[in-house]
Amino acid sequence: MPSLDVALVRALEPWAERVRSRAPLPLCICWGDEPSAAVYLCAPPHEPTVRLTLRSPKALPALLSPSLESLGEAYVEGHIDFEGSVSEIIDTAWRLAELAAEEGADSAAAEAAVPAPSVLDRLMQRMATAWQDRQRARHTPGADRAAIEYHYDVSNAFYARWLDPAMVYSCAYFETGEETLAEAQQKKIDHILTKLRLAPGHTLLDIGCGWGALVLRAAERFGARCVGITLSQNQYELARERVRAAGLEDRVEIRLQDYREVEGRFDRISSVGMFEHVGLANLPQYFRRIHDLLADDGWAMNHGITSTDPDDGETPYGGGRFIDRYVFPQGELPHIGTVLTTMQRGGLEAFDVENLRRHYARTLACWSEAFEARAEELRRMVDEKRFRIWRVYLAGCRWAFEHDRIALYQVLCRRAGRPARELPWSRRWMYAPASG
């Protein structure tokens, strides 16, 4: 009987040949830590830059019928490992998923690409036996107890390792492209507050205030009186600490509150990176709530991620399903057309629309690079599954923004049906330097 490595190569080679003939990839596939054989998806003389190691028989179906969801799940659950730069790994995963989708249109080609069920079943059984032997040796009572006791939730300290010092967890604004991440995040906040024409004495509601960076800036540099709301206990506590440390408790209030529970009227409203969680069916009600909270002559800014599918479809090749399952449960991305339509239905008129897709690609590149640079430290802060989720999520979203799979729009709006005589005629006012 041939060794497991040899059997694996024989089973995968027809599939690998099909991939090589359509679009060679810089990938080799191995079983175990010291394989005696490997399957190459690149054609000589090219060398692979990404190595995929199968750690479980559960990896085979994901590999042979790859999607971003199946590959992402296999990685997060520890069924496969990757070696190589994270950008090359993500690029390879996207290409595998694209090829599988292309071949799916031809059922005969799809059937020929997968080993016969009997061969696959026997191979998976052999891999399962080898996998169980390795797991028994690895799972001592002490190791399992430590894993169970390890705190799973992501902490403020975890985010602080790869965000900017102000911990702004949304798309930055690179005015020249030469800024550091910290500079670009402050410019993003100033860009929003300048677009809103925020002035001393104005009241500002920030829906989804994160760790408080925007309301702190609005109070300190623009002279506003602010309310920031969040549903995160960790964000709430740290934002309140930051307000106290800045001596701004008389001008900034942080609340642990849902936007539907807020009462009163505000001169300005900002919503940054929050409406993605509202749900497509609820967007008209969401914008109606902003309308009701906005002063008659007020202005609002909605800054959020959108789908590039005009039918509000999810990120292709299973990417959206992976994010829904592992990162943002129940999140939904509308197309910008849907945003503008539901905004109007909610009683708001859009005055300015700006696409910052490339800015978010750059932001995610900064986050992903910081994450990779601190990988070993981050691994010690969370369990391996959480680490893998965030690693692949940051790099994968960077790829999606770079390739127009998702976008980011800022939409400046106000109550519909009202005059706007106070606005300058050109857009030059949006780029004035921050006051204060």
UniProtKB/TrEMBL annotation:
The active site is at 397. CDD domains: AdoMet_MTases (cd02440). One of its GO terms (biological process) is methylation. Transmembrane segments: none annotated. Signal peptide: none annotated. Coiled coil: none annotated. InterPro entries: CFA/CMAS, CMAS, DUF7884, SAM-dependent_MTases_sf. Keywords: Lipid metabolism, Methyltransferase, S-adenosyl-L-methionine, Transferase. One of its GO terms (molecular function) is methyltransferase activity. It comes from the Bacteria. Residues 47-98 form the DUF7884 domain. Belongs to the CFA/CMAS family. This is Cyclopropane-fatty-acyl-phospholipid synthase. It comes from Tibeticola sediminis. The lineage of its organism: Bacteria, Pseudomonadati, Pseudomonadota, Betaproteobacteria, Burkholderiales.
